[in-house]
Amino acid sequence: MVSPNELKVLSTTAMKMVFEELAPVFERTGGYRLAVTLGPSLQLETRLAEGEAADVAIVTRAGAEDLIARGKLATGSLVDVAHSLIGVCVAKGAARPDLSSVEGFKRAMLSAKSIALSKPVGGGASGVHMAKVFDRLGIAAAIQAKAKYGAGGARGLAALAVSRGEAEIGIQQMAELLAVPDIDVVGPLPAALQAATQFTAGVPASAQHGDAARALIDFLATPAAKSVIKARGLEPN
After folding, report:
1. Contact, 143 vs 134, CB < 8 A?
2. Considering its fold, how many domains does the chain have in total?
């Protein structure tokens, strides 16, 4: 049974470490316990579009605008929270791929034995973007043969596959890479291949606690919260 003082939050996995640090702070001051469900933005957007109830949603900006158009998020409730770059990781102490140029990145991808990624369909925003990158570089078929796709959410992070030795290289949102210990984050993709994903908070039309939901979104925009967001690998808006 849902507590009357519980806020249901559906959030992109990129916010995992942010909520781990900030949820207790908000709960002490806001009077509500946060029940945070993490997942790839595209999956959460689908769940919300299909009618799943929540008090706060943090998904991609494009997804949030689509949900507004569908009547699933309250008009006027959208607030940009943070944007994220896509990065690359390897096992602790492993050789680092060359990210200094497009050609260096391409060579590293072709020489890698296995690469952990978000799914290009139904996964996170990084998976969609990387599919386009590999196609643009003319190596999509070669990558497909060595790709390891996670299940999505906090348990399907690309960096976890790297830390377990299931993949040589992991590619995902920088904040998601930083959420996993015992791996080395090499850095962001070369600028020519990069895509910044904007994550936006909104209040679902199904929200049971609209005022508290807006209070949480306002809290994420405070200077103290922004400093945590930045420390956890995201760029606050």
Report:
1. yes
2. 2
Question: Positive or negative CA dihedral for 21, 27, 30, 34?
Answer: positive
Tokens of 198: 């904007």
Domain that includes residue 189, residue range: 86-193
Burial class of residue 224 (count of CB atoms within 10 Å of its CB; 0-12, 13-18, 19+): exposed
Residues 21 and 55 occupy one common structural domain:
yes
pTM of the predicted structure, to 2 decimals = 0.83
Q: Which residues are 89's β-sheet partners?
A: 170, 185
Compute the Cα dihedral for 215, 201, 81, 161 and give only its sign.
positive
Backbone angles phi, psi at 171, to 5 degrees: -130, 120
Residue 1 lies in a domain: no
pLDDT along the chain (237 residues), means of 10: 80 94 94 94 94 97 96 96 96 96 98 94 84 97 94 82 97 93 96 95 96 97 97 93
Range 46-83 burial, b when 16+ CB lie within 10 A, else e: ebbeeebebbbbbbbbebbebbbeeebbbeebbbebbb
